[in-house]
Amino acid sequence: MTSKFTELAIDCADPNGLARFWCAVLDYEVQDEDDGIVAIGPATVPDATNHPGPVPPTLTFARVPEGKTSKNRLHLDVNPTDREQDEEVRRLLDLGARHADVGQTGDESWVTLADPEGNEFCVLASRRP
Questions:
Q1: Overall number of domains in the chain
Q2: Which residue, of 66, 91, 116, is where some domain finishes?
Q3: What strands, in cross-sheet order, belong to the sheet with 76-78?
Q4: Residue 36 shares a structural domain with residue 86
Q5: Which of 14, 38, 46, 59 is deepest in the core (most CB within 10 A)?
Q6: pLDDT band at 51 (very low <50, low <70, confident <90, very high)
Q7: Contacts for 38-46 with beta carbons within 8 Å, 24 or more apart?
């Protein structure tokens, strides 16, 4: 038996605000909220114990006192599903993302953005259902 990737924990200053941003990005909803921790995930989640394929991960935002100090060692990549990359980048910028420079050359097929708390993520070029 192997493990399944089911949750990603993200430290932040404003769990509610960051959860709202990522809910809008991923079409997720708040699943649990308790004492400085907010968990979000898809509206319908397959039973992780009996589901052989990928299980959409839950994102958990936990309030911490320290701020972000350097480039993420782990980041999310998102794929637009119903629009082209440039349209999705504009949508995410309107939601509160900003362009991020992590040493790109300009030849990449992805666009690097940062969420409202500065966590880098990439918007990939290909659309996936």
A1: 2
A2: 66
A3: 76-78, 120-123, 111-114, 98-99
A4: no
A5: 38
A6: low
A7: 39/7
